[in-house]
Amino acid sequence: MPPVLAPEEWLVFLHGKLDEQVEAIQAPTDYYNGLQRLAFATAKFKEAFSRYFPPLANNWMKLVVDAPVSRLAIEGFRFDPNPAKPGWDQPADQDAWAIWQTNNLDGVSQMVHTEAIKCGICNVLVSPPGEDTRNQPLITAEHPSQSYVHCDYADHRKRLAAIKRWVDEIDDYAYTYLYLPNVVYRYESDSPARGRSFSELTWVPLQNDDPVLNNPMGVVPMIPVENATDLLWGGRSDLEVAMPIQDAVNKLCLDMQVSSEYHAYPQRWASGWEAVNDAEGNPIPGEQVEMRVGQSRLIRANSPDTKFGAFEVGDVQNYIQPIELYIDHLAAVTQTPAYYLKGKMANLSADALRAADAGLVDRCRHKILSLGDGWEEVMRVAFLAKGDRTKGQAAFVETLWRNPETISLAQTVDAAVKMRTSLSCPVEFCWELLGWSQQKILQAKEMMGLPESPAARKAEDPMRQQPTANPGAQTSPGTTEKVSSGGVVLPK
Fold it and tell me: Which stretches of the chain drop beneath a pLDDT of 50?
């Protein structure tokens, strides 16, 4: 049985869990933003460059996160509220897409994916419809530093409670919303919160509005969208394995900058140099003697024992090679193509490029499975907010994603044609293989006058259910064949 807590008890518990989550996501957030640990900045670096610029962090963490995000795009949802009906025969749900477009989720979803891959989790909040949302549910992305969802330990799919908190920069007061399955409690701080931590605040019911709201959805309306889910810790950041490598690269880059300052030009030396006296005949200390060398100057010495020389120039390859080695390691552990990180790509064939992208494509397909579950639950709750219990409780919901693989258009068209003619695949499969969105597929159906589902087209034309009279027979000279829209070869 899940715990039965009073609202005030939930408030204390969830604030503590949110504090833990804020601490956990701080490091990957800083690294993504380029605010990285530079503990290896030596005294030599500070001596050479502190007057000119701060330590330089070569930020590869942003590329590690943005590479899969650029290939994760949602194109629709497929619902099957009737279990007796085959799910493969369902078109993309237009009501779900209307909710999606009304909330501008094409762009918002990219932010959700970025935060989920960077921090391990990002929450999505569903609110009931209102006049300002065109009578559609309001769906907003909530940063994991401001929101937390607590799930049942016995069943992670069951959300018990959620919290959202923030500080209003206009009135300086902090606000907290507590979401339970049937009610929403709203609190505010009893005094301005600027400069104070949340643990120092005292919470009182909201004063200027209703502190208690009914939750018509019957479930906690905040849904976690998790990345690389762990059984014990939930969503995990992709930067966990990358941050130590970033530290090593930063250290080598700092050393290379110091070397460029002290070893970029050859340091000269002289031995057996006679003593230097000033105009009054007094000896001048050696550290005060500067030997100036120029193109039109000649250095000479009276003593035959005087020798001149120069030390070898510092070689920055000693730093570039290990940096490149670490970048190769970073590409391997994060499955990010090396040409993304190094910016080098020359004369790559289509097969070589596909092989280079294979790790990133597999990484994206893995994320589609974990991120898709969260978005499917978001759409279920959105339909509950509209009062549609059929779709809100549907067992079969599928998120339709754009193909993350980059492939040649000519090869794709050739494969689609072969699928259609040789395998008699439904035309929708071929269109999806070409990368068409569900909206383009619907538009093509309307322009061609096709029914929405393959089963309906098959039922309308009995000829499509009949095989050819003699599939193995050869056509006689002077005759041709054509392929019907159902994929069956018919004599012309």
Answer: 461-492
Whether 92 and 218 map to the same domain: the answer is yes
User: Is position 356 within any domain?
Assistant: no
How far is the C-alpha of 133 from the C-alpha of 254, rounded, in Å?
A: 51
Q: Which residues contact 282 (CB under 8 A, 6 or more apart)?
A: none
With CA atoms as reference, report the closest residue to 58 among 240, 290, 309, 327.
327
Q: Which amino acid is at 47?
A: E
Q: Are 94 and 219 within one domain?
A: yes
Sign of CA dihedral 387, 385, 74, 447: positive
What pLDDT, on the 0 to 100 scale, is given for residue 338? Answer: 87
pLDDT at 21: 96
* Residue of 116, 118, 179, 150 lying closest to 18 (CA atoms): 150
Do 216 and 288 lie in one domain? The reply is: no
Strands 121-127 and 307-310: unpaired
- Number of structural domains the chain divides into: 3
pLDDT given for residue 424 in this prediction: 85
The answer on 213 and 112 residing in a single domain is: yes
pLDDT, residue 454, reads 55
Per-residue model confidence (pLDDT) at position 310: 77
The residue out of 310, 343, 369 marking a domain boundary is 310
- Domain around 289: 268-310
Cα separation, 62 vs 115, in Å, equals: 11
Residues near 164 by beta carbon (within 8 Å), at least 6 away in sequence: 125, 142, 146, 147, 176, 177, 179, 222
Structural tokens at position 192 = 């301005």
Cβ-in-10-Å burial (0-12, 13-18, 19+) of 208 comes to exposed
Tell me whether residue 61 is in a domain: yes
Domain assignment of residue 323, yes or no: no
| Same domain (yes/no): 43, 141 | yes
- Residues 175, 107, single domain; the answer is yes
Q: List the structure tokens of 89.
A: 């025969």
Task: Give the pLDDT of residue 309.
Answer: 80
**Residues 133, 42: contact at Cβ < 8 Å?**
no
My answer on whether 412 and 298 are in the same domain is: no
Check whether residue 59 and residue 197 sit in a common domain.
Answer: yes
Q: What is the pLDDT of residue 176?
A: 97
Contacts made by residues 434-442, CB under 8 angstroms, sequence distance 24+: 435/402, 435/403, 437/75, 437/76, 437/402, 438/75, 438/76, 438/91, 438/92, 438/97, 438/400, 439/75, 439/76, 439/92, 439/97, 441/92, 442/91, 442/92, 442/94
What per-residue confidence (pLDDT) applies to 474?
Answer: 45
pLDDT for the residue numbered 492: 37
- What are the contacts of 382-385 at 24+ separation with CB within 8 A? 382/96, 382/99, 382/126, 382/137, 382/139, 383/95, 383/96, 384/216, 384/217, 384/218, 384/219, 385/126, 385/127, 385/128, 385/129, 385/137, 385/216, 385/217, 385/221
